[in-house]
Design goal:
It is built from five helices and three strands. The protein has 149 residues and is an alpha+beta fold. A three-stranded antiparallel beta sheet has the order 1-3-2. A hairpin with a 2-residue loop joins strand 2 and strand 3. It starts with a helix and ends with a helix.
Length: 149
Amino acid sequence: MLARVAEVLAWWAVLLGAWLMSLNAFSFAELTTATCVALPGALVACAARRAVGGRWHVRVRWARWLRFAPWAILHDTVSVLRLAAGPDRPDDDSFDEVELTRAEDGHEAFATALVSAAPGSVVVDADHRRLLVHRLPIGDTGLTGAVHR
Protein backbone atom coordinates (compact mmCIF):
# COMPACT_ATOMS: atom_id res chain seq x y z
CA MET A 1 0.00 0.00 0.00
CA LEU A 2 2.81 2.39 0.88
CA ALA A 3 4.51 1.66 -2.46
CA ARG A 4 1.34 2.58 -4.37
CA VAL A 5 0.98 5.85 -2.46
CA ALA A 6 4.64 6.65 -3.17
CA GLU A 7 4.12 5.90 -6.87
CA VAL A 8 1.07 8.19 -7.05
CA LEU A 9 2.99 10.94 -5.26
CA ALA A 10 5.95 10.54 -7.63
CA TRP A 11 3.72 10.79 -10.71
CA TRP A 12 1.85 13.72 -9.14
CA ALA A 13 5.13 15.57 -8.55
CA VAL A 14 6.30 14.93 -12.12
CA LEU A 15 3.01 16.09 -13.64
CA LEU A 16 2.82 19.12 -11.35
CA GLY A 17 6.39 20.05 -12.24
CA ALA A 18 5.71 19.67 -15.97
CA TRP A 19 2.68 21.97 -15.71
CA LEU A 20 4.54 24.60 -13.70
CA MET A 21 7.55 24.55 -16.04
CA SER A 22 5.27 25.31 -18.97
CA LEU A 23 4.03 28.56 -17.41
CA ASN A 24 5.28 31.94 -18.49
CA ALA A 25 3.69 33.62 -15.45
CA PHE A 26 3.16 32.06 -12.04
CA SER A 27 -0.08 32.67 -10.15
CA PHE A 28 -1.95 31.09 -7.27
CA ALA A 29 -4.75 30.05 -9.66
CA GLU A 30 -2.27 28.19 -11.87
CA LEU A 31 -0.74 26.45 -8.86
CA THR A 32 -4.18 25.40 -7.60
CA THR A 33 -5.24 24.13 -11.02
CA ALA A 34 -2.00 22.24 -11.56
CA THR A 35 -2.21 20.68 -8.11
CA CYS A 36 -5.75 19.46 -8.73
CA VAL A 37 -5.26 18.28 -12.31
CA ALA A 38 -2.02 16.41 -11.57
CA LEU A 39 -3.71 14.00 -9.14
CA PRO A 40 -6.10 12.33 -11.62
CA GLY A 41 -3.26 12.19 -14.12
CA ALA A 42 -1.07 10.46 -11.54
CA LEU A 43 -3.81 7.93 -10.79
CA VAL A 44 -4.25 7.18 -14.50
CA ALA A 45 -0.48 6.82 -14.98
CA CYS A 46 -0.29 4.30 -12.13
CA ALA A 47 -3.26 2.35 -13.45
CA ALA A 48 -1.77 2.29 -16.96
CA ARG A 49 1.58 1.03 -15.67
CA ARG A 50 -0.16 -1.76 -13.76
CA ALA A 51 -2.32 -2.62 -16.81
CA VAL A 52 0.72 -3.23 -19.00
CA GLY A 53 2.67 -4.91 -16.23
CA GLY A 54 5.46 -2.36 -16.51
CA ARG A 55 8.26 -2.19 -13.98
CA TRP A 56 11.23 0.11 -14.21
CA HIS A 57 14.30 0.01 -12.10
CA VAL A 58 16.32 3.13 -12.77
CA ARG A 59 20.02 2.45 -12.35
CA VAL A 60 22.34 5.07 -10.95
CA ARG A 61 24.95 4.26 -13.61
CA TRP A 62 22.58 5.53 -16.30
CA ALA A 63 23.05 9.04 -14.89
CA ARG A 64 26.48 9.16 -16.55
CA TRP A 65 24.66 9.44 -19.89
CA LEU A 66 23.28 12.78 -18.77
CA ARG A 67 26.69 14.42 -19.13
CA PHE A 68 26.31 14.06 -22.93
CA ALA A 69 22.83 15.64 -23.01
CA PRO A 70 23.58 19.38 -22.67
CA TRP A 71 26.19 19.35 -25.45
CA ALA A 72 24.01 17.15 -27.70
CA ILE A 73 20.96 19.37 -27.23
CA LEU A 74 22.91 22.59 -27.84
CA HIS A 75 24.81 21.19 -30.83
CA ASP A 76 21.69 19.71 -32.44
CA THR A 77 19.59 22.84 -31.85
CA VAL A 78 22.13 25.09 -33.55
CA SER A 79 22.70 22.56 -36.36
CA VAL A 80 18.99 22.04 -37.04
CA LEU A 81 18.36 25.78 -37.13
CA ARG A 82 21.31 26.17 -39.51
CA LEU A 83 19.85 23.44 -41.77
CA ALA A 84 16.41 25.08 -41.73
CA ALA A 85 17.80 28.52 -42.54
CA GLY A 86 20.22 27.34 -45.21
CA PRO A 87 19.45 27.38 -48.93
CA ASP A 88 20.29 23.70 -49.45
CA ARG A 89 18.81 20.93 -47.40
CA PRO A 90 20.72 17.65 -47.56
CA ASP A 91 18.85 14.46 -48.35
CA ASP A 92 21.21 12.16 -46.51
CA ASP A 93 19.39 11.74 -43.21
CA SER A 94 19.65 8.18 -41.96
CA PHE A 95 18.25 5.45 -39.80
CA ASP A 96 20.74 3.80 -37.46
CA GLU A 97 20.38 0.89 -35.09
CA VAL A 98 21.80 1.41 -31.63
CA GLU A 99 22.38 -1.86 -29.82
CA LEU A 100 21.66 -1.79 -26.11
CA THR A 101 24.14 -3.87 -24.14
CA ARG A 102 21.80 -4.50 -21.22
CA ALA A 103 18.20 -5.68 -21.37
CA GLU A 104 17.22 -4.26 -17.98
CA ASP A 105 13.78 -2.90 -17.17
CA GLY A 106 13.75 0.81 -17.92
CA HIS A 107 17.03 0.83 -19.89
CA GLU A 108 15.26 1.10 -23.22
CA ALA A 109 12.86 3.81 -21.99
CA PHE A 110 15.60 5.93 -20.43
CA ALA A 111 17.81 5.59 -23.52
CA THR A 112 14.87 6.46 -25.81
CA ALA A 113 14.02 9.60 -23.83
CA LEU A 114 17.61 10.78 -23.75
CA VAL A 115 18.38 10.15 -27.44
CA SER A 116 15.11 11.80 -28.50
CA ALA A 117 15.79 14.86 -26.31
CA ALA A 118 18.36 16.10 -28.84
CA PRO A 119 16.60 17.76 -31.82
CA GLY A 120 18.76 15.99 -34.41
CA SER A 121 17.60 12.47 -33.57
CA VAL A 122 14.44 10.65 -32.65
CA VAL A 123 13.85 7.02 -31.72
CA VAL A 124 11.23 5.62 -34.09
CA ASP A 125 11.23 2.00 -32.93
CA ALA A 126 12.63 0.05 -30.02
CA ASP A 127 12.76 -3.38 -28.50
CA HIS A 128 14.65 -4.53 -25.44
CA ARG A 129 17.97 -4.87 -27.27
CA ARG A 130 18.05 -2.06 -29.86
CA LEU A 131 16.81 1.39 -30.80
CA LEU A 132 16.04 2.47 -34.36
CA VAL A 133 17.11 6.11 -34.51
CA HIS A 134 16.35 8.62 -37.27
CA ARG A 135 19.20 11.13 -37.49
CA LEU A 136 19.72 14.31 -39.41
CA PRO A 137 23.13 14.78 -41.06
CA ILE A 138 24.50 17.19 -38.48
CA GLY A 139 27.32 15.25 -36.85
CA ASP A 140 27.53 12.90 -33.93
CA THR A 141 27.67 14.18 -30.35
CA GLY A 142 28.38 10.84 -28.68
CA LEU A 143 24.95 10.56 -27.07
CA THR A 144 23.90 7.39 -28.88
CA GLY A 145 27.28 5.84 -28.22
CA ALA A 146 26.86 6.56 -24.52
CA VAL A 147 23.50 4.77 -24.24
CA HIS A 148 24.93 1.81 -26.16
CA ARG A 149 27.43 1.04 -23.39
